[in-house]
Write a structure and sequence with these properties.
- The protein is mainly alpha-helical.
- It has two domains: 30 residues; 203 residues, MetI-like fold (Orthogonal Bundle).
- The chain contains ten helices and no strands.
- 34% of the residues are buried.
Length: 246
């Protein structure tokens, strides 16, 4: 038996035991402050059997992948272009440097003014959160292309487009995947924030509604569902990275 496979489970089990002891055995905190694992489990069963947890999760994932798709369509081609042309990079560096540090949630008022309430403003917030990490990683990937490969291609008579398409782009793929991996985590955080303020569906709206009704068990279920989704997506991108690097 490989003990390393079970090592990551040790801390969660310890946390679960402590959580159970302070909420259900010693009653050190009330369910309003922190629900017990039993309450959370009961809430999870209720949400799962009603289908609400599934529909809200699908709704959140739709927004996440919608925002990621639009961010990738903009950031990857633009990143390749800026990484390839030093002049274009210098022209756009100031604008990128100003916009990149702005938190995605700061765009929520404008997203509501421009798109109203619902799915579209959430996708816009995700787009604003993901586009810059993907862009920066793509630019960096193109610029890190081995000079020897470029010189070898030039020696063999390759033109600028061939070098970009056949040398720089394949070299940048691992960095692009890394940017997407970073972006997916940001996308989840942006989605939940946007759903809490400008949406009427999804896991963020579920958490907000449950909190307003003092249903902390459902709140924790929503939070844990987001964590599990993030874990699964991180695992998938990790596998993709290993395939590319190896």
């Amino acid at each position: 038996m490989n003990r390393k496979k079970f090592t990551p489970l040790i801390l969660p089990i310890i946390i679960l035991i402590i959580w159970y002891l302070i909420t259900s055995v010693f009653n050190l905190v009330t369910s309003y402050v922190l629900p017990s694992p039993i309450n959370v489990f009961e809430s999870a069963i209720t949400l799962f059997s009603s289908g609400k947890l599934f529909t809200d999760s699908i709704d959140t994932l739709f927004k996440v992948f919608g925002g990621m798709l639009f961010a990738s369509i903009v950031a990857i081609p633009l990143g390749i272009l800026l990484g390839w042309s030093k002049t274009l990079e210098e022209m756009s560096s100031f604008v990128i440097s100003v916009l990149r540090p702005i938190p995605p949630v700061a765009w929520i008022p404008f997203s509501i003014l421009w798109f109203g309430i619902g799915t579209v403003p959430a996708i816009f917030i995700i787009f604003m959160g993901c586009v810059f990490p993907i862009l920066i990683y793509t630019i960096d990937g193109v610029k890190r292309t081995d000079k020897v490969l470029i010189e070898a291609a030039q020696t063999l008579g390759a033109g600028d487009f061939d070098i970009l398409y056949r040398v720089m782009l394949p070299s940048a793929v691992p960095y692009i995947v890394s940017g997407l991996k970073v972006g997916i985590g940001i996308a989840l955080m942006c989605t939940i924030s946007a759903e809490m303020i400008g949406s009427s569906s999804g896991l963020g709206f579920l958490i907000l509604t449950a909190t307003n009704l003092f249903d902390t068990g459902t709140t924790v279920v929503g939070m844990l569902t987001i964590g599990v989704i993030g874990l699964v997506l991180d695992y998938i991108f990790g596998k993709i990275q290993k395939q590319i690097f190896w």
